[in-house]
């Protein structure tokens, strides 16, 4: 059923109301090959993907030529949107087989069970009857890929489809897609912000920024000899990172416990994660590396009291006092930086106001303003940023502001939860550099959680895996 | 959670709600004052009121009275009316069939009208006909039911005498039905069961105006609910995907548009039950249908404390039961509705 | 000054139905404020300068809207009818909003038992139709004697009770999302006091959904007041001007061909209720549309 014609996008522009999301984008979609659409968020790559799959919101205006195959499947980032919540997932996959390939219902169901198993889920026959809400994000995403492939498309588009999966599952899915491609000769478009992924899986890549094509070419040439400045920066970012290897460590333990078990706040008897024999020395930087969904964020929440947790034999030494549990006072010696900088600020407050809110009660009233200026300077932001709203800052700037906020209370320990996962390579390295210098300046103790081994290796003295 | 678990928990919650409602009603009414005093204020002397209060055992501690109340309730008794010492529940049983049939017809009418219109409005959203439909729905919804009922009555019984002025049946049919069996008080049911088609038609003609009065206003809000729900489905990715791959046909629409929206629509019926009840109070007065609403109005006007209390308890029970049923149905067809706390 | 220009901006950006709604409510506000000065006669006035008014007189020079069966001036009673109507709204809305929102925020923040109990209470309040409740309340207040204050209070309290669960549920959902967002989580983890978090971060960001409910609340409150009057409860003509009661009397007038006693109060009632309903229905639409355009 594969069409031997070549497909392409020519001078495609997509706009809504007042502005253009995508401007004048052209590239070819060769059969039997994988094309990568690469760019940071807001670059328009998802819009192009949806345009190719004919799933754009009705308000969006399209100009240009979209020569896409008739049989196109799109797998998008949020799998819960791809599945009807009221019908069991197995039936939905079977529906594609029945209506798309003309199979008999019974055979389609059997095939669907097989597909579910092929994509790595256990007990496929049982899970056939489950509804979308009963799956985790990672599991459902794999099922979405299964559903997409069941359609036997000429073009498969994966829009950040594997970003939320851990490495093992990501490979499983992409290997499966690869095999399918070999068998059917279909074309694949991989949309991602991850350079590594594009390098690994694509033969051709299109680099997008702000809705326009900056550069495109075969992956080998593009990523080894990038022509545009922006791409050059991104490609070489990681190489440019210099790790500070002489960190001062003391033998004094700042935090230690024998065991911690964190529970689900809505179902207090179900365990989320458990860690044993942990210790953190003063001035040390420790990384926790684990794939998504393994409970690393829950670990932090449990430690800090957002989630119910059981701590055994805990000892905290903060500001000369020894404590056996994380009290309200103890928390005031902690700083906290999260993954999504946009989510980390009250959208209605200017940055200065958010910083002041965090400082209140801990920093003396008279010197709060001075503290704000100092801390913004520490992270490399001009004082004028204090009067801006979060929406007026870029992702990288906002994450720096988040770090500034965490520093204003002069914490002893900094907790960082995926601090660079939402940033592009260039900003990632800048933040890691910043963290390094701040650690030295203030003698901070750091606990950093990430799914990226690059980040944990770059920013920490030792690494624990969950 | 599983359907079974949800059903059990929901039933327990419903039972707790009934007990809590009865308690709340008791407390509220006692808060308002002494039953005897309320009923007889201005009609008899103050000493008489005090005497009767004592005689009715109303000066005993509140807990004692409360437990007696609950005890009686569990036994199915709602006490005696304050003014005439009749059994409250007997009066209720007399009035209930009229209201239940009325309510049933209203829901049927509203469901039949609003579902297709709501769908139509969603499908054609943004275009002039759909928008003007919305505006008319709003105007209708904003019209007070009693106003609408009065208008209908005046227009169609006086100016253009098409429909009977009041009541549920003409006298002839009433006599006919009473001599035949079954005689449950459910006129529609009775008439159908005994094959008295004349009575059935008579009943429907009598009920036409009141049902339209309440039903039309109910339809207005239901149309909006259906429209919004279906609109949401129209922009859902699973629908778009299926439409792209297999076309915009009936199977696509039923599985991916209608099914996801169904549970929401059914539960909105449940929440609108209160609106229906309110409307029925007015319609029953205007069209002189001797149902629960009529009884309530009379009871409040004559200040019959116990009767009012009994009716409100009955209303609470009905509302809780309706919501229970709709919640269970919704949970059965849609796994998203199996959370206890929404 | 800034408030005024904000309001003006909002008006300019609104769609046609929304503008109509705003205009209607603006008119209502004006009539409410200037009513007592605009009305030519008092609500229970049946004579002027010693001469008794003609009963059931059609609109004429002396009585622009005619007179009722009891000899009252319809124009005056229509205008003065805005007094109790607005009073009910002014009492009912803040009562419901404050209780419902605070409960919603508390339920979302503390979860567990607090959440379950508050939800149960909300479910309980949700069982009672506002009208039925108001009938019961009017029974008790002032031992069944009807009057201005009792009528207004009965309608206001019962409407507030009916809407508390709605505010509660809406705010609870919104607050849950806000609490789950980064900045609140960070505040919690950094040891900021719960009350500061609730008051300064959660509550201000959770009230987005309120304006629409408030409009519905206002419309309902007036309908309950009028409904109560129509049934013969609440505010009787000798204690105040109320459209519902007048309408119940006007039904008889219609049978003899007098239309003005029903027409003008109905118009006033519709103005109020329609105005708020339009605002409620089209606010959501407008903000949704603007949101999609800015994405």
Give a verbal description of the structure.
- The complex is a heterotrimer of chains A (466), B (342) and C (295).
- Chain A has helices at 45-52, 89-101, 105-118, 124-128, 137-150, 167-184, 195-201, 219-224, 229-237, 296-304, 328-331, 351-359, 368-378, 395-407, 425-442, 453-459, and strands at residues 7-16, 19-29, 34-38, 61-67, 72-75, 155-159, 187-192, 204-209, 212-218, 253-263, 271-281, 285-289, 309-312, 315-318, 321-323, 334-337, 413-417, 445-450, 462-465.
- Chain A is of the alpha/beta class.
- In chain A, strand 6, helix 6 and strand 7 (187-192) form a beta-alpha-beta unit.
- Chain A starts with 6 loop residues before the first strand and ends with a strand.
- The mean pLDDT of chain A is 84.
- By secondary structure, chain B is mainly α.
- Helix content of chain B is 77%, strand content 0%.
- Chain B has 14 helices and no strands.
- Chain B is globular.
- With 295 residues, chain C is mainly α.
- Chain C is 75% helix and 1% strand.
- Chain C contains twelve helices and two strands, in the order H-H-E-E-H-H-H-H-H-H-H-H-H-H.
- In chain C, strands 1-2 form a two-stranded antiparallel ribbon.
- In chain C, a hairpin with a 2-residue loop joins strand 1 (47-48) and strand 2.
- In chain C, helix 5 runs antiparallel to helix 7 (148-180), helix 6 crosses helix 10 (210-230) and helix 8 packs antiparallel against helix 9.
- Chain C is elongated.
- Chain C starts with a helix and ends with a helix.
- At the B-C interface, helix 1, helix 6, helix 7, helix 12 and helix 13 of B face helix 5, helix 6, helix 10, helix 11 and helix 12 of C.
């Amino acid at each position: 059923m594969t069409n031997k014609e070549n497909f392409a996008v020519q001078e495609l522009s997509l706009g809504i109301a007042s502005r253009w999301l995508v401007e004048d984008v052209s590239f070819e979609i060769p059969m039997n090959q994988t094309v990568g659409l690469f760019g940071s968020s807001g670059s328009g790559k998802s819009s192009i993907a949806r345009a190719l799959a004919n799933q754009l919101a009705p308000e969006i205006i399209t100009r240009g030529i979209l020569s896409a195959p008739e049989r196109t499947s799109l797998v998008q980032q949020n799998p819960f949107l791809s599945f009807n919540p009221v019908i069991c997932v197995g039936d939905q996959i079977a529906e594609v087989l029945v209506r798309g390939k003309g199979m008999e219902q019974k055979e389609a169901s059997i095939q669907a069970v097989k597909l579910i198993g092929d994509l790595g889920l256990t007990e496929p026959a049982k899970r056939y009857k489950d509804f979308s809400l009963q799956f985790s994000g990672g599991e459902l995403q794999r099922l979405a890929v299964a559903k997409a492939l069941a359609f036997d498309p000429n073009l498969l588009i994966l829009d950040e489809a594997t970003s939320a999966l851990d490495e093992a599952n990501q490979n499983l899915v992409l290997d499966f897609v690869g095999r399918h491609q070999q068998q059917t000769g279909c074309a694949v478009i991989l949309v991602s912000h991850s350079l590594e992924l594009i390098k690994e899986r694509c033969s051709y890549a299109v680099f997008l920024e702000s809705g326009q094509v900056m550069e495109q070419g075969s992956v080998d040439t593009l990523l080894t000899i990038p022509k545009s400045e922006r791409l050059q920066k991104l490609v070489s970012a990681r190489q440019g990172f210099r790790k500070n290897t002489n960190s001062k460590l003391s033998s004094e333990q700042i935090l230690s416990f024998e065991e911690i078990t964190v529970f689900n706040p809505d179902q207090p008897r179900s365990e989320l994660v458990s860690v044993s024999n942990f210790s953190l020395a003063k001035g040390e930087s420790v990384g926790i590396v684990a794939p998504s969904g393994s409970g690393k964020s829950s670990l932090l929440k449990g430690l800090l009291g957002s989630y119910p947790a059981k701590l055994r034999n805990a000892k905290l030494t903060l500001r000369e006092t020894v404590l056996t549990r994380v009290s309200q006072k103890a928390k005031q010696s902690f700083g906290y930086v999260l993954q999504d900088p946009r989510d980390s600020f009250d959208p209605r407050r200017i940055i200065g106001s958010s910083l002041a809110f965090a400082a209140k009660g801990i920093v003396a009233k008279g010197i709060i303003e001075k503290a704000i200026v100092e801390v913004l300077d520490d992270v490399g932001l001009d004082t004028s940023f204090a009067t801006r709203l979060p929406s007026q800052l870029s992702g990288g700037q906002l994450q720096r502001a988040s770090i500034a906020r965490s520093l204003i209370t002069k914490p002893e320990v900094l907790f960082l939860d995926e601090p660079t996962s939402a940033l592009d390579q260039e900003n990632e390295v800048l933040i890691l550099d910043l963290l390094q210098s701040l650690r030295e300046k203030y003698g901070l103790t750091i606990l950093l959680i990430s799914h990226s081994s690059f980040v944990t290796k770059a920013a920490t003295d030792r690494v624990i895996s969950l | 959670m599983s359907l079974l678990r949800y059903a059990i928990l929901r039933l327990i919650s419903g039972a707790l709600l009934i007990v809590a409602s009865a308690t709340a009603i008791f407390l509220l009414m006692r808060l308002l004052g002494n039953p005897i005093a309320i009923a007889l204020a201005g009609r008899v002397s103050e000493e008489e009121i005090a005497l009767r209060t004592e005689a009715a055992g109303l000066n005993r501690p509140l807990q004692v009275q409360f437990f007696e109340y609950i005890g009686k309730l569990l036994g199915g008794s709602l006490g005696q009316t304050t003014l005439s010492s009749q059994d409250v529940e007997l009066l209720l049983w007399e009035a209930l069939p009229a209201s239940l049939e009325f309510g049933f017809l209203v829901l049927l009418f509203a469901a039949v009208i609003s579902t297709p219109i709501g769908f139509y409005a969603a499908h054609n959203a943004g275009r002039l006909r759909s928008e003007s439909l919305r505006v008319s729905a709003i105007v209708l919804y904003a019209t007070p039911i009693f106003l609408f009922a009065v208008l209908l009555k005046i227009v169609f019984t006086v100016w253009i005498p098409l429909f009977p002025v009041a009541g549920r049946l003409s006298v002839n049919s009433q006599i006919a039905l009473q001599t035949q069996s079954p005689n449950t008080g459910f006129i529609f049911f009775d008439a159908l069961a005994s094959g008295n088609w004349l009575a059935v038609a008579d009943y429907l003609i009598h009920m036409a105006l009141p049902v339209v009065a309440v039903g039309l206003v109910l339809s207005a809000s239901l149309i909006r609910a259906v429209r919004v729900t279906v609109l949401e489905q129209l922009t859902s990715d699973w629908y778009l995907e299926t439409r792209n791959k297999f076309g915009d046909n009936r199977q696509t629409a039923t599985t991916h548009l209608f099914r996801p929206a169904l549970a929401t629509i059914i539960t909105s019926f449940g929440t609108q039950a209160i609106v229906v009840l309110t409307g029925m109070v007015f319609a029953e007065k205007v069209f002189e249908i001797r149902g629960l609403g009529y009884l309530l109005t009379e009871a409040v006007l004559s200040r019959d404390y116990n009767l009012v209390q009994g009716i409100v308890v009955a209303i609470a029970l009905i509302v809780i039961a309706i919501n229970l049923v709709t919640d269970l149905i919704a949970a059965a067809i849609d796994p998203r509705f199996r959370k206890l706390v929404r | 000054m800034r408030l005024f220009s904000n309001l003006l901006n909002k008006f300019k950006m609104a769609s046609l139905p929304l503008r109509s709604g705003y205009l209607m409510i603006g008119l209502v506000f004006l009539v409410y404020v200037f009513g007592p000065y605009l009305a030519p006669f008092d609500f229970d006035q049946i004579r002027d300068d010693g001469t008794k008014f003609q009963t059931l007189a059609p609109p004429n020079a002396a009585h622009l809207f005619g007179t009722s069966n009891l000899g009252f001036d319809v124009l005056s009673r229509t205008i003065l009818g805005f007094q109790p109507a607005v009073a009910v709204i002014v009492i009912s809305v803040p009562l419901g909003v404050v209780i419902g929102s605070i409960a919603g925020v508390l339920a979302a923040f503390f979860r567990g038992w607090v959440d379950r109990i508050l939800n149960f209470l909300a479910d309980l309040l949700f069982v009672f139709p506002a009208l039925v409740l108001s009938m019961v309340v009017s029974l008790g207040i002032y031992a069944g004697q009807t009057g201005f204050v009792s009528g207004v209070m009965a309608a206001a309290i019962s409407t507030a009770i009916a809407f508390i669960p709605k505010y509660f549920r809406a705010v609870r959902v919104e607050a849950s999302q806000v609490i789950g967002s980064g900045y609140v989580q960070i505040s919690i983890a950094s040891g900021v006091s719960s009350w500061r978090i609730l008051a300064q971060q959660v509550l201000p960001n959770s009230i987005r959904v309120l304006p629409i409910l408030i409009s519905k609340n206002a419309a309902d409150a007036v309908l309950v007041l009028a409904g109560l009057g129509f049934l013969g409860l609440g505010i009787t003509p000798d204690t105040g001007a109320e459209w519902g009661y007048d309408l119940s009397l006007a039904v008889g007038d219609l049978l003899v061909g007098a239309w003005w006693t029903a027409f003008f109060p109905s118009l006033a009632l519709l103005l109020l209720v329609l105005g708020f309903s339009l605002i409620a229905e089209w606010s959501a639409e407008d903000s949704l549309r603007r949101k999609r355009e800015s994405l």
